[in-house]
Amino acid sequence: MTTSTELQQPELELCYFPNSNTTSNNNSTIYLSSFPNSTTISETDLTHHFNTNHQQSKRHEVSDEETQTPPRSPSPTAIDQVQSASAFSTTAIPDGGYGWAVVLAGFLLTFCFNGMINCWGILQSALLNSTLSHVPTSTVSFIGSLNLCCGVAFGVLSTRCGQRFGSRYTAMVGITMMGLGLIAAGSCTSNVPGLFGTIGLLAGIGMNAAYTMTNQLPVQYFSGRLGLANGLIKVGGGIGGTVMAIALEKMVQRVGIAWTFRIQGLITIGMGLPAAWMMKDRVKPTRKAPFIDLTMFRSVPFSTMFVAGAIGTFALFVPPYYLPLFAQSLGLSSTTGAALVAAFNACNAVGRFAGGPLCDKIGSTNTFVITMTLNAVSMLAIWPVSNTLGPLLAFAVLNGVANGAYFTVFPTVVASIFGPGRAAVAMSMSITGWTFGYLLGAPVAGYILQASGGSEKAGGGNIDVYRPAIFYAGGVALVSSMFALSARLHIARQVARRV
């Protein structure tokens, strides 16, 4: 017995019916006797045949065994449902709206952060030339490094606080602690343990709480423009470092180092508290979110980028910490040294801003590889031969751009690997991985400087003794770029692909 089958929708290209009892043996190949000289056809062949021979198919006779009635679409699997939910969670992100207020808040907060950490070299030089003239350079450098270390070491804990109490209140408590630490440091300028406690611990832990919120909150509001949002937030740090480098040098000269700390603390609280109040969560904080997720290290790109980020931080703060001392070793004034730090921070702002749109255009992983490569090349090829102000300024410009881009690009890379659902935990784990680099990066350079015969005081020695420390910083930046390149090649080997 035969029946006539008419194709009503010739534009339909191919259907796969997994529950059909046909000779296809539960695969996506369809067997039709209407195709001459072949019993097996590809999707392309079937599409072409349906479109060009529709009239012939209307007249064709096939047996009942060769005729299939399309069943209803099968119920979505669990994987389909998860993928659908993931897609919805991404498309539901407004990519703007109140997110721009969050960007402004993050801009102001990073202004405060980098107004301190990127200008520690100026404060360090002032301390070494006044109240701490008897203390080794590496010890004073370690105060700033402890501040940096605490600024990232408690990232997982700060994320937990944000999940429990909300980003707003976590950021408000953090910025208040940071300001109080600076104010208290004004009474400890001759006391090294006091500076470790106020600047290193109190201000550092407070900075971490607020800094973590600026990293994890934008992903709730932005998807396609996440790179731009992160760039605008991080550019606040570059501008803050530039403005405060000039302001702090003037304050040190006019009111002394003690009142410089106090004034900076008051500025931090006055600017930071209103900004922290604007850090509103788009989704209700959940207390059931994981504290730490070690399964993330099963992802080779994440594991490799984690290592790249951790190693890269050893080099980041060597230039701003030692540029003032290096400049004075060339016979330049402390004002010129502060101006170099200001130039470094201004270009840092450019890098922070440019890194975001560049991530959106060529891919975040590609941008990170470029960032760390430029960081390494500038330290290995330019800084060691900067015998005059011109080359030294060129180094400050190039390294400042690469240094600033790091802080915009890295959070975007992590968010691109795991998406908005797991970005907060992934980013907090990654930032915690920066702990040793922040703690030891600049002090190791200080110890190398002393071991190579460098002066422990600002203004002594020549630049030859700085080269071992410079090569150390450039070397770790180069290793970081290699790990980043490895992660990029694991994701995609095509050179021109946006990753």
Automatic annotation (TrEMBL):
Going by the entry's taxonomy, the superkingdom of the source organism is recorded as Eukaryota
Cellular localisation: Membrane
Which InterPro entries is this protein grouped with? MFS, MFS_dom, MFS_trans_sf, Proton-linked_MCT
Region (Disordered) residue spans: 52-79
Has the keyword Cell membrane been applied to this entry? no
What is the source species?
Didymella glomerata
Regarding the membrane, this protein is recorded as: Multi-pass membrane protein
| Keywords, ordered alphabetically | Membrane, Transmembrane, Transmembrane helix
Q: Please give the name of this protein.
A: Major facilitator superfamily (MFS) profile domain-containing protein
Q: Which GO terms describe its molecular function?
A: transmembrane transporter activity
Major localization listed first in the record, in broad terms: membrane
The residue ranges of the Major facilitator superfamily (MFS) profile domain are: 301-499
Any one Gene Ontology cellular component term annotated for this protein: membrane
Q: Which family does it belong to?
A: Belongs to the major facilitator superfamily. Monocarboxylate porter (TC 2.A.1.13) family.
- Keyword Metal-binding among UniProt keywords: no
Membrane-spanning segments: 98-123, 135-157, 169-186, 192-214, 226-247, 259-279, 300-323, 335-355, 367-386, 392-419, 431-449, 469-491
